Task: structure prediction
Amino acid sequence: MDDLRADERCVDTLLPHRLSSDENYYWKLYTQNNNILNELKERFRKKNVQFPPQGFASVEVERSHLERSRDDEEAGCTSDKTIIERLLKDYKSFKTPSENGVIVWLEVWVQTVNSINEITSDFDMDIYVTELWMDYALRYDHMNPCKYNLSLSNEILEQIWKPNTVFINSKEAHIHRSPFINVFLMIYPNGTVWINYRVQVKGPCMMDFSAFPFERHQCRLTVESFSYNNQEVNMRWLNTTSQPLSLMSSPIVLPDFILTNYSTSIENVVYPAGVWNELTMTFEFSRRYGWYIFQAYIPTYLTIFISWISFCLGSKMIPARTMLGVNSLLALTFQFGNIMRNLPRVSYVKALDVWMLSCLTFVFCSLLELALVGSMSAKTEARSPKGSLSPRSTSPCPPSSPRICKHANDQTSPHGFRSYGSTAGDPRMRKKLILTTSGSLLNNSNRSNDRHQERMLLIEGGSDENAPNCAKLRMVSSPRRRRRPWTTDDIDRFSICAFPTLFGLFNVIYWSYYLTRP
Result:
């Protein structure tokens, strides 16, 4: 009965009469057209069917088939099943639809991006791939079809010609099965074949971490016909009102990345077997650096600020300042290692490396400043031991009787002090004594010839030979003295201004460079 179903094209013009007989029908056909009768005889010659001269024929067919045929006949059209059987009867799936080559139009819809892996430098996404081409061997507009197009299953796809499109640079690709294979096939009356299939594909990404975590990555997928060069199959992007590459949901946002741009391109690539058309999809992903701002940058800011507190503690708090600086250094090192362990080991410097190393340098310099302050404080204490005489120290003389200490023998005096008169209790009449580095005293007329460091001593009180050998001395700076050396407090005051200034300048350069980098 299969041959009978396949030959309904000639039956559609006949006037059928059915006689029921249990499960089957006897279909009696009446016709006065000799051409139709001869065609019936030719088609049914392998069946044991009698054709009387008056044009009467009877054959046994299935009830279900006749029910469908009757509906189609009443509608005056050809059923889908009949069309497919006629199209595939003499169809050759290995033959290219046209001897001059066929144009295959391609369109891609991005359903979702599943993940981006920095370690393996790839991305995973679900896409819908649409292919369109013209196959004149599948035209059925002359068959008076009941439907404008035929929606068919994957089984029919295996019986027709296909361009064998592949993702040539994919790491992995497969058609979804949920629960059956996700392939859609549609054939139009003019022979246009439309195939759509849902694919999960994993493709490579060109990752450059030099601007991490402010970098952008480009991921590409390339499609071409695996079996045919461009002389047989000319691959092109589908030129419609919309773009050949589109998003089904926008925007596409991942925990670490966001899809910022996408584009298509076409390129002719020369192989030993000929020239192939390669259609490339380019996706650009930008990293969402909010997590790194909270986990890396803000903690390092706080650590740097805490390390500057040691400048305000003074030179007497060396243990506390040491603990503060060392803890800041360890905290930065731990944060840096915790972030870097989830990234690939690259041989170039990243933006986060520059930030962390610079912050470590600032903390390390604060420890160097602490070492300098501690060293100067220790030397100061060593130069002024307990019980030593200082300009303001107490003397055996009463405070009310300030005098210069005099030795019994001037020649044995360590500096050879001599009095140039008596002050007589009048402060305005105090005389100046010039003490040179060699220990000799010079008068005012010889001071201009002296190139050594000078100090002036004011003698307070009169010169009484019977007075006790004591005096109260007050140092007065000379205009030609050396600059006062830096103290530990001076270094701390300088550091508390210099460190924030340099760190602020570094921030301006760092953020302006990496945030505006193309």
